[in-house]
Amino acid sequence: MWYWKWHLHIREELLPNDNALLIDHQCRASSWSLSISLNHGPPGCSDGVRAHRSDSDTHVEIFGYKTQGCRKALCIAGYILSCGLLRLVFYWKPAWDVWANCIPCGLHEADVTLLRTTDEFQIYSRKKVTWISVSALNKFRPDYPIIADENSLINKAIMKPDLKVRCIQVQKIRYVWNNPEKQFQKVGSLEDSHTCSDIHTKFGSGLTREEQDTRRLICGPNAIDVQVLPIWKLLIKEVLNPFYVFQLFSVCLWFAEDYKEYATAIIVMSLLSIALTVYELRMQSLKLHRLVKSHNSVKVTVCRKKEGFQELASCQLVPGDVLALTGDKALMPCDAILIGGGCIVNESVLTGESIPVTKTQLPQADDGRPWRTRCAEDYRRHVLFCGTEVVQTRADGSGPARAVVLRTGFNTAKGDLVRSILYPKPMNFKLYRDALRFLMCLIAFATIGMIYAVCVFALNGVKAGEVVKKALDVITIAVPPALPAALATGIIYTQGRLKKKGIFCISPQRINVCGQLNLICFDKTGTLTEDGLDLWGVIAAEGNSFQKVHRFTSGRSLLWGPVCRAMVSCHSLLVLDGKIQGDPLDLKMFEATNWVNEDLAKNGEFTPAVIIKPGPKASNVPVEGIAVLHQFPFSSALQRMSVIAQEIGGEQQVFMKGAPETVAEFCRPETVPSSFARELQFYAAGGFRVIGLAYKILQAGKEAAGLTREEAESDLTFLGLLIMENRLKAETKPVLEELSAARIRSVMVTGDNIQTAVTVAKNAAMVSQTSQVILVEANELSGSPTASITWKLMEETKPKDYRDLVSASWPASRHDTYHFAMSGKSYQVIAQRFRHLLPKFLINGTIFARMSPAQKSNLVEEFQKLDYIVGMCGDGANDCGALKMAHAGISLSPQEASVASPFTSQTPSIECVPELIRQGRAALVTSFCMFKYMALYSTIQYLGILLLYWQLNSFGNYQFLFQDLAITTLIGATMSLNGAYPKLVPYRPPSQLISPPLLLSVVLNSLFSLCMQVFGFVMVQRQPWYAQHNIHSACGSGNESHVENSTSVAPTGFNGTENAALREGVDNGYRSYENTTVWLLSTMNCLLVALVFSKGKPFRQPAVANVAVCALVMLGHSNAHWVTGCHLSVSQLVCTPIFWRISMMLMLLVTFAISFVVEEAIIENRALWTLLKRCFRYQSKSLYKRLQRMLEQDSAWPPLNETVFSETRVIPMGESRAAYSNPVFESDATQGDAQDKAAAGPCFKDV
Predict the structure, then answer these.
(1) HSE toward the beta carbon, residue 50, CA cutoff 13 A
(2) How is residue 1104 annotated by DSSP?
């Protein structure tokens, strides 16, 4: 019997919630489109509604129910008659509560809804339909829209003439009933159907006071409120945990059987566990509450229609309000669209990078498209996200910077981040699922023992009450409540070891998953390579050719010209607090020019133009300075940025900087050198990061503010290439070689050039120098609905003129091993047009370049679909979605964006990856060891009790106490102390509890223990000194006095029994020779089994290194009074001859030897199980293994130098599955298309 709590789930919950479970992962952002389909409902429900994301496989079903009075009355009667047990069951099973109290109905008339996830968890949650009355606000005309925007969801939700709104709340998000469309829709954000012109005209002048009050009542307050539950509520929730209910049942049974000492010990330990858990929950909730507290106490200035600007608390903001942004630094209390002026924002809370971001106002163009569709992937440059810091603002001609509130409360980017903490994604690791299955097997095993106990005691005339108690006692013995705790113990210790290594974990359940990782995706810049870039040189283009390389290390200044002007002006650097801040690449480029950026900000506001002037060390230039008039910010999806600049007293010019291939597309073809591709490939092959530069002179009379990005970025002149050196980190190559030796795949996912990525992969040993790299290019054919895909070997020749750059050796011929390399554009085309080929590419895909954040997340998901256990290691900037999607995301960023990642390394080095895998493997093996030990411990005790039941006997109070507390508790606390083995072996530990080796181990050791106990039980009865009713027959004279003393304190046996001992007039209680023999054998067997199961190499430190377990085994033997036989009264044993004690020792040694040999020679013999698999032709069922076997037999794959055309059908590429990727903040190249389908936002529809 064990009394530890499974702390793992407690830590994952973080905070109690109102039975809200998984809907958040399916209905998180306003940009998601939901489709509706009929579905068979749960028992008693004829039909249901399935609401699901259109771009994923995850669904949520909602069913309507109406409460029925007679059913509710019957349930109340059941609560009373069952003394509250039925109510407790309904508390655990909310679906049963709904089915018992309600009848199914349509959603339009339901007062209770039942939500069910359709993933493998099938989790139900009950939500009550509530009413909001708006009649008290004002007297509204029944024929007049309450909200000025007639198409607003709020107008559609208000029922007339009652002026009421039906709503449900799911994971902090409110859904209101849309009466015309008969569906629940999310409220708390502006509708996505608004055009740019709508936002300016409908909301530009603010809302009326009446409309603000109405929106506030229906949408709720703008608050990210994390409730801190009172301690008494936490106590009640904890006590009602099924574990403690089972403990209460056990304690009551033990008190009834007079097991007072053990029951008292369990109560004490349970109270300590409850107190510790409540304390942890309280501290975690307080910490999160303090984290978001500042959000709810911000003073803001809003514009009210016809009333002007007013100051109010941020919690009173509603979607549609107009915020006035002054020059002071301030945290954004909501998501808002900038409609006037400009802002500089620090978004490190969301991106992990403390790089200022420039925000520009939403254009007023009216082309009929929704604003996000029109802005496409650039929509984020107009949005100020909640939780980010507004560093500087810029007024425009009509007043201060202004923004329309887009989303409030938990609908915002920060609210979404907090909800991901409150409602984490459940883990479906096989270990935990198999543990529950095995628990069911133990319950069935206990049922057999109960039947046996009833038969034995009933046939011997024991009273019915005693029979029931003894039968129920079998359950508390055979079913170890410690099984969940046994699986969590190793995780707790591992979490502490990881913390010492500088690796912090916010999702302890994923530690065991790390032990199964077989594929790791790495970001490149800042992860595999150094974060900072060094400016190596620049190659100017003139005419149709490149000029000589200008090396900045030579000490010569760059001559004044278009290239120098581009380097001086085309960046996003800002002067904040007297220091230039911005992207490291921009910083290195700007510093090479020796120019300075003037700080013209006053009172937190910045001027419309940024002035840049030559510094003291700058070369002589014919201009006084350059003014940057307008900026088109850099976008990961666009892979470029542009500025409109003007020399002081000169003409206006446009400068562009970005990926060379992208920049070249915007240039006039005659200005791009003919050797562009060859030159780019050469430098990229050398591991350099290459940036393209271009410019054009604007026609006189054109205003910079009036130019669109499309107009500015057209007909450019190509200027040249900027060469940045990005060195590998010193630890990168050794780590990747270690992972390769351990047969763990490494994949590079980067936004850099594909040739640069290939070179870095080769230099880092991700791709061996003898392997072929096959470039996969997929394109959509212009003017045609089809697409093409081409395979070709990457050119890897190197001109002799550049031998001093980078040393590398290329293979002369094709090798058996090959790796695919592709760009993000090709990946997207393959995912949409060549879906059947995508798994084949992923099997050997190693380099993925020019990948957008959404494509990174999708790639991780596709690997998971092939049954890979995927890890992701990135710097937390554009990798948040992939970090959360992966089975184990490891962030190297210390910023708050690491909240999106289960693991965060304090040291920005990929050395944390093999360390995490080592610790994960050790934790996983420890969980198996603890599982086997706990299962066998219960089985050993169970078998011993059933043997003694044959004589109507059992273990005594102190015997149970010694086994359960003095031995098993300490074993459970110390067996996990083995650290991880320092070397990663080329195979993983098993992932299933229900596997032949483990089951065979438990079964064989159970049989060994049974044989030993039965042998001892039978042999002790055949000893010449044995007497069934005289427990002093074997004692010598030296022990007589002690026996007399011990007899007086012996507990009584089974009350009311008429066994042979009572007929003889002697009641020895539990004390007998059989009891002494069986108890000593079972107790010592538990200790020895701990040694057998305490595994060492190849995943953990050797068992002898665990001094605590070894010392405990030795101490347990000495304390069992095994040799001297002293203090028998405490342990309720009888004195036996030394010969018999030696005989029992031999039995134990033989059993230990057999168990050890079987465990090492059979159970842990990897070669033997591999041979058996071959004999039975067993092959892995993992999809990637099956694909590998198939491709090995396909001689035509890969088809080199071939082009294949697709069918016309397009398959939408999903962004993510059920993981959190902060879609409110996400930048996605495909989101624009999704917006056309998602104008209504997430909904639950009636049918």
Answers:
(1) 16
(2) G
Strand 818-823 and strand 574-576: the pairing is unpaired
Worst-scoring range by mean pLDDT, 751-755, 782-786, 1104-1108, 1220-1224? 1220-1224
Ramachandran category for residue 320: left, alpha or beta (phi over 0 → left; psi -120 to 50 → alpha) = left
Q: 992 is written with which tokens?
A: 């299933």
Instruction: Give pLDDT tens digits for 81-127.
Output: 988 889 999 988 899 999 999 999 988 889 999 988 876 677 888 99
The set of residues, in sequence order, having a beta carbon less than 8 Å from that of 1056 and lying 6+ positions away, is 462, 463, 466
pLDDT number for residue 608: 61
Alpha carbon distances (Å) from 424 to 17, 263, 421, 900: 12, 36, 6, 10
What string of H, E and C letters represents the secondary structure of 43-110?
CCCCCEEEEEECCCCCEEEEEEEEECHHHHHHHHHHHHHCCCHHHHHHHHCHHHHHHHHEEEECHHHC
Q: Which two tokens stand for residue 712?
A: 């500015």
Which candidate, 941, 931, 944, places its Cα nearest to that of 478?
A: 941
Neighbours of 487 (CB within 10 A): 26
User: Residue 1036: pLDDT above 60?
Assistant: no
User: How would you label 747-769 residue by residue, b for 16+ Cβ within 10 Å and e otherwise?
Assistant: bbbbbbbbbbbbbbbbbbbbbee
Give the HSE-up count for residue 958: Cα atoms under 13 Å, Cβ half-sphere. Answer: 15
Take residue 911 and report the two structure tokens written for it. Answer: 């050395």
Phi/psi of residue 446, nearest 5 degrees: -65, -35
Asked whether the beta carbons of 331 and 298 are under 8 A apart, the reply is yes
End-to-end CA distance of the chain: give it in Å, rounded: 51
Over the chain, what is the mean pLDDT? 77
Residue positions annotated with a catalytic role = 523
State CA 106 to chain mean position distance: 35
Residues 6+ apart with CB under 8 A from 487: 6, 8, 431, 432, 435, 512, 927, 930, 931
pLDDT at 1007 exceeding the cut of 90: yes
Q: Can you give the three-state secondary structure of 934-985, one letter per residue?
A: HHHHHHHHHHHHHHHHCCCCCCCHHHHHHHHHHHHHHHHHHHHHCCECCCCC
Mean pLDDT of all residues in 533-543: 84
The H or E element that residue 301 is part of is strand 299-304
Taking 50 as the threshold, does the pLDDT of residue 805 lie above it? no
Cα dihedral across residues 333, 335, 341, 345: positive or negative: positive
Q: Which tops the pLDDT comparison, 250 or 169?
A: 169
**Alpha-carbon 966 to chain mean position:** 38
Give the relative orientation of helices 260-293 and 413-422 as an angle to the nearest 10 degrees. Answer: 170
94-101 and 69-81 helices, crossing angle to 10°: 130
| Best CA proximity match to 348, nearest among 591, 582, 603 | 582
At residue 76, the pLDDT reads 93
- Per-residue pLDDT reduced to its tens digit, 166-216: 899 888 889 999 888 888 888 888 888 888 888 888 888 888 888 888 888
Instruction: Output the six-digit token pair for 280.
Output: 């942890």
Element (H or E) spanning 3, and its range? none
Query: Distance between CA 765 and CA 807 in Å, rounded?
Result: 14
Residues 6+ apart with CB under 8 A from 781: 787, 788
Kindly list the distances between the CA atom of residue 725 and the CA atoms of 278, 536, 680, 754, 826, in Å, as whole numbers in the listed order. Answer: 53, 6, 14, 15, 26
Residue 154: CB atoms within 10 A of its CB come to 24
Task: State the alpha helices, DSSP H only, in 521-576.
Answer: 562-569
| Distance of alpha carbon 412 from alpha carbon 418, whole angstroms | 10
Q: How much of the chain is in helix, strand and coil states, percent to nearest 5?
A: 45, 20, 35
CB atoms within 10 A of CB 970: 17
- Residue 1164 near residue 996 (C-beta atoms within 8 A): no
pLDDT (tens digit, 9 = 90+) per residue, 871-893?
999 875 567 778 878 888 888 87
